[in-house]
Write a structure and sequence with these properties.
A hairpin with a 3-residue loop joins strand 1 and strand 2. This protein has one domain: HIT family, subunit A. A 5-stranded antiparallel sheet has the order 1-2-3-5-4. Helix 5 crosses helix 7. With 189 residues, it is α+β, with helices and mostly antiparallel strands. The chain contains 7 helices and 5 strands; from the N terminus they run ααααβββαββαα.
């Protein structure tokens, strides 16, 4: 009986179809969440110091950068973050606020060009109580959506099935971002 139970725990097929998503445990267990609200603990302050591929950065602006979400709701889920460690929209300078919105618009255009979503969810979660995973550093979510992309899995199994690896998604969007920038500026990137 113990051997049979061990086989089931190890993922040996049985009567159930299972979608194993062990990568979600790091998020559930709080990996990459800052120990405190300081910039020294913040992943959004650390990532810009890494190369784009390692940091999953899609685009760098003057005041803000665009990065893939490590725990995406759907393929291409992007975060637009100011470089400066601020927690509230009202703390942004005028230049930061403008660029946050401009990069959110460009992210939508790039996602439309490379993966043709049917719609988007955009949002800023201000504070833990509002659902901010990292409340100490403001970030805007740009989440592409497709008809039928959500099914019973998130509700029943607290699992999302993602068909593309983050590195492949970053490369596709980074390459597409240049094309989008050229389209919007008449050839000047």
């Amino acid at each position: 009986m113990e051997a049979e139970r061990a086989d089931q725990l190890a993922g040996v097929p049985d009567a159930f179809d299972r979608l194993w998503t062990p990568h979600r445990m790091v998020y559930i267990n709080g990996e990459n969440k800052p120990a405190d609200a300081t910039s020294g603990q913040c992943p959004f302050c650390r990532v810009p110091g890494e190369d784009d591929e390692t940091g999953l950065i899609v685009h760098r602006g003057e005041h803000c950068f665009v990065v893939l979400n490590l725990y995406p709701y759907s393929p291409g889920h992007l975060l637009v973050c100011p470089y400066r460690h601020v927690s509230d929209l009202t703390e942004l300078t005028e230049g930061e606020a403008r660029e946050l919105m401009l990069l959110s618009q460009q992210a939508m255009g790039t996602l439309r060009a490379v993966s043709a979503p049917h719609g988007f969810n955009l949002g800023l979660n201000q504070g833990d109580v509002a659902g901010a995973g990292i409340a100490a550093h403001l970030h805007q979510h740009v989440v592409p959506r497709w008809k039928g992309d959500a099914n019973f899995m998130p509700v029943v199994a607290q699992t999302r099935a993602l068909p593309m690896l983050l590195g492949d998604t970053r490369r596709l969007l980074a390459e597409g971002w240049v094309d989008q920038a050229e389209r919007t500026s008449g050839g000047e990137a």
